Amino acid sequence: MKNAIEVNGLRKEFKSYSSRSGLKGAFRDLFSRNYKVLRAVNDITFTVKQGEMVGYIGENGAGKSTTIKMLTGILTPTAGDVLVNGMNPHKEREAFVQTIGVVFGQRSQLWWDIAVQESFRLLKKVYKVSDEEYDRHMGHVIRTLDIEPLLDKPVRKLSLGQRMRCELAAALIHNPPLLFLDEPTIGLDVLVKLKIRDFLKEINEKYNTTILLTTHDLTDIEALCDRVVMLDEGHIIYDGALKDLKETWGEGKEVQFQFLEGVELAVLENVTRELPVKWELEEKEQLFTAYTTDEANAVSDLIATVISSFQIKDVKIMEVSTEEIIRKIYEKGEV
Amino acid sequence: MDKYIEMIRIRFLMMLAYRTNYYTGILIYSINIGAYYFLWKAIYGGKETIEGLSVLQMTTYVAVAWMARAFYFNNIDREMAMEIKEGKVAVELIRPYNYLTMKTMQGLGEGIFRLFFFSVPGMLIVSFVFPIRFSADIYTWALFFVSIVLSFLINTQINLLTGMTTFFLFNNTGLIRAKRVIIDLFSGLLLPLSFFPQGIQEVLKFLPFQGISYVPSMIFTNGFSFSETLQAIMLQGLWVLILIVPIQALWILAKKMLVIQGG
To answer: Predicted confidence band at B30 (pLDDT cuts at 50, 70, 90)?
Structure first.
């Protein structure tokens, strides 16, 4: 199977200017300015196979968007090689962008003042899509995303959810083999999110479309991607299956207690002092959370001990969530 | 080519989406033409001609210069500045077209819209109010037409250059305003270039601005002889070719150091 994306030692540096303080400093800035060279992306290497769905995650400012912009040919890399769909995105920009679709969640690519269908019509011409091709492919896209009734409305009159569905359709007009999605579900409600996820799964199965997705919503990644690439301060700190990440980092169990009468945290800690447990109290709801290990009898020991001493209203046993895992990794800065 | 023609159509639709702009535009142009008409009448007083132009030629010059402006004038420099500042240029760069050509086409869409829905009806109204002499000569019209197309190209190229400076300066509102005033003054819109002091005229001969307004207006008012007309049109064409060089150079440089603002 061929690779959709090959990235080798990719690097991007920006000059970051800083202003001197005060009036005197402002005058000095007129003649010479202080700057630091920042590495937004620092020698990253990875490949994505055709048909893969990859989640590209990292904290704000980790370099995700910069990478996407280099992969789509918008920014010139400072160093390193990029080969996407067998082309150098920056060198052969016009031929290259014909083979990709991009959705920037925070920027609209439809024309603001005119009806959605006019934007589609222009894009159809821009990507040289034939009428039959358009009717066959886009007819399906429009039905699945349920945007038929929105087509004659100007973009500025659409809600965010409606607009995002139209944006996604616009990115798929030429049925590209590779789709970049930069925070496509930002600010959307659950129903629209689900609809978009189902749709992405469908086109991935139907056309073997490669999808590279950046998001802060890890449920998107869980629902769609088998593989994640995690970025921190411009370095790739993890590249592999989401499942493995969970298995390595998702150690321990969480047990949540609610008691019938008021209980002091210190008392609880005292009762369970023999067990490998760490307690946390959520004050408002009086939720006591115990973090314990994965050992076979850890949970039953804990519950047995607690029940023998206190009257319990509710108990919940939880696996450590992906969010929790990612938070731990971000805090530590490495895998 | 299809996509560029489609863009002209889209621009038409966008102009129609903002009708208020259209109406206020007509009002502003009428006021300008009226003001200059009365100003020039007062300046001429009893005199037959000044610098080789009669009153009639002068008023026609003013009206034609403003009407031609409606065609060649556009705000793509301001639009580019905004797109670059807001980072929208990223979206333009992921499309399989040339950004600068697309911008030119948007300007052309705007120009054609104004020519038909603005200049032509405006000219009719003006001709009822003020004495203006239209040439009956088909060649004059043809040459005038060629000339304003070249005006549009020169003006748009200068706009592209100004717009692209945003890549380097990040805020160039002042530059855009200065450019606008310089073009209005040195292109001969406010004052025919033959009215400038000799020294300045010499300098202006070596600048592209005269090709924007002075040349087409002089052709229309028959202020040029035939050989002067051909020479002027050739000079316009030459400027169109010359200006391609800095535009391409700046574009290549801009793409290299492009920073997309706002994430």
So the answer is: confident
